[in-house]
Amino acid sequence: MRRYILFRLLQFIPLLLGMTFVSFIIIQMAPGDYFTQMQMNPDVSPQTIENMRRTFGLDRPVVIQYFFWLKNIFRFDLGVSFSYHIPVSFLIKQKLKNTLALSLFSIFLTWLIAIPLGIFAAIKQGRWHEKILSFLAYIGISLPAFLIAMLMVFFAARTAILPVGGTTSVFYIGATGWEKFLDYLGHLLLPGLALTFAGIGGLYRLMKNNFLEVLGAPYIITARAKGLSPVKVYFKHTLRNAINPMITIFGYTLSSVLSGAALVEIITNWPGMGRLMLDAVLSQDLYLVMASLLIGGVLLIVGNLIADVLIAFVDPRVRLR
Amino acid sequence: MRVFIRRLKDKNRLSFVSLWILVFLYCLALLADFIVPYPYDLQHREYALCPPVLPHIFHNGRISRPFVYGIEIVNPAFKEYRQDTGKIYPLKFFVKGSERKILGIIKTDRYLFGTGNGKVFLFGTDNHGRDVFSRVLYGARISLSIGVIGVAISFILGLFIGGISGYFGGKVDAFLMRLVEIIMMFPFFYLMLALRAIFPANLSSVQVYLLIVVILSLIGWASLARIIRGMVLSIKEEEYVMAARALGLSSFRIITRHILPNTFSYTITALTLSIPDYILGESALSLLGLGIQEPYPSWGNMLSVAVGNLRVLTGAPWMLIPGFFIFLTVITFNFLGDGLRDVMDPKNW
Questions:
Q1: Alpha-carbon distance B248 to B240, whole Å?
Q2: pTM (2 d.p.)
Q3: Per-domain residue ranges of chain A
Q4: Tens-place pLDDT, residues A82-117
Q5: Which of B288, B308, B314 sits opposite A158 (nearest CB)?
Q6: What ipTM does this complex have?
Q7: Contacts of B193 in chain A (CB under 8 A)
Q8: Which residues of chain B does A293 touch, with a Cβ-Cβ cutoff of 8 Å?
Q9: Would the N or C end of chain B have less CB density within 10 A of its end CB?
Q10: Of the CATH numbers 3.30.559.30, 3.30.1490.190, 1.10.10.10, 1.10.3720.10, which one belongs to the domain with range A93-285?
Q11: Can you tell me the distance from the alpha carbon of A194 to that of A147, in angstroms, rounded to the nearest whole number?
């Protein structure tokens, strides 16, 4: 098992290198750099800008810059943000916490709702329960997350049920630990639910289709013919086989939610990586963009590893290989 | 084609209906010049954020020909409006207006409908007093075409690269597939932003349009190429491919004429189902102000007014109407794609 994980990790390293290199080139392909805007400012002398470029290493060829960046990464130094003048790692730590809270909350809720519904619909295939659920799933798949977020902001602002924007309310200062948590959770609810509603449809459909496929397998017919109770057939024989492909998908959700969350964060004013990344890209804040992309890649790897381990845990066929 | 549509009707009623809704939407977009009552950039300054003004057919309890009431401004500062039931403007069809060209070809001075001196804002107006209905129809041109063109480019790239990768195998395959994996590794949204940032922010609408299409297709071909490669790997072992090779056909000809056509039943379905991704990609970029630029409307940039502006969002919910059209387009493409899958799958014949 340990060798397997190590092998998978090694597989990802060239990919990660390729990805960071490509993004470095892409960002440097943009005309000018962060300091180009500064040249417009008559208060800043060209000499100062030249010096700053040199300090940040922007006067060297792109490939050399990339290797310097890479060297620093191995020393856990993500560089300094041009626009905020503080280390990127410090900047990202604050925002990543919020984004991860949002992502994990919505992933958890999505799976909690979608998986049982998918199983239920597969069991009731062709009946009215399934038809209604499947139709709702179609709507959920077709409603983009940003639209759901806008609709929710609209209703939240109209009815004042949920707080809109930010992570905390004015009462946060001076609140006790438990109250702080509830306050944070309250603010998390709106972007979190928007992301959840956007994700349920797709997951429901996958679960339903997997379950249906396994239900048609010969060993299920055997199990039924043996006279096993439906509960045993569904949950012991079918579910355990139908859940495997879902775990693989789980590996990808971690990184795709990061991407999906960005837009929702911007719309609902949730201070996460989305807004940070948008501003960083627009102002060509090189090291900030690189760090964000790197985190995206690392999350993908982590997600895949978790999935691999889980599959090996659930499926003995994989474990033995 | 007719057999095909009939089969679609029999197999999957919803997708059949979706097909017609889509045809209708495309017609609206094509004929926008003729249908809309106002140009997309005409600002009715005095009627900013005016709620929808809909035609009525009952007046004092009696049926009359369609008409609209006049709009009375109650409070200009808070943009409050009321229908002035004293003023009646009959709704006229095929009214004369200023001359314009439909799709740049047919000259006409007739509009589908108009009210003379009254105002008819079917979907209300935006913060500049522009008619949302007119802008939705013009915006449809962007959203409805971007998916089809974008998919066409990804289709060509995906088929070609996937075909080469699967057919030749070896080093070519290894290199191309690593490239695919790298592209798929990026968080989609971040990659889109980074690619957009290569180009200056203030491009003309046409340039931005082309740019978005290219960006989205450059991201989108990867997953298709991967699947095509897998299919080509198995198809190239078929006997007819061997026969083609024995006949001395060139690799290019074998790939394009003998192998790739066999993947079409899958790819056409996959493409229909991926059109929504392009529409949403454009909307997302425009929503952030990085896509189609004002004054030209797209469904995404029309929504951007309501983002981050709670007063507009809560006070003028009709600003979300473009969002409904995004939803309608996406769901009909999804239904259609599923219907196509049912029809194309030989198991269902």
A1: 13
A2: 0.86
A3: 93-285
A4: 778 888 888 888 888 888 889 889 999 999 999 999
A5: B314
A6: 0.83
A7: 277-278, 281
A8: 186-187, 190, 194
A9: N
A10: 1.10.3720.10
A11: 9
What does the pLDDT look like over A36-71, one tens digit per residue? 767 777 777 777 777 777 777 777 777 888 888 888
Chain B closest CA to A182's CA: distance in Å?
A: 24
Token code pair at residue A290: 């690189």
What's the length of chain B?
Answer: 349
Per-residue H/E/C for chain A: CHHHHHHHHHHHHHHHHHHHHHHHHHHHHCCCCCCHHHHCCCCCCHHHHHHHHHHCCCCCCHHHHHHHHHHHHHCCCCCECCCCCCEHHHHHHHHHHHHHHHHHHHHHHHHHHHHHHHHHHHHCCCCHHHHHHHHHHHHHHHCCHHHHHHHHHHHHHHHCCCCCCCCCCHHHCCCCHHHHHHHHHHHHHHHHHHHHHHHHHHHHHHHHHHHHHHHCCHHHHHHHHCCCCHHHHHHHHHHHHHCHHHHHHHHHHHHHHHHHHHHHHHHHCCCCHHHHHHHHHHCCCHHHHHHHHHHHHHHHHHHHHHHHHHHHHHCHHHHHC
Cα-Cα-Cα-Cα torsion A138, A141, A144, A145, nearest 10 degrees, comes to 120
Query: Which of chain A's residues have a Cβ under 8 Å away from the Cβ of B176?
Result: none
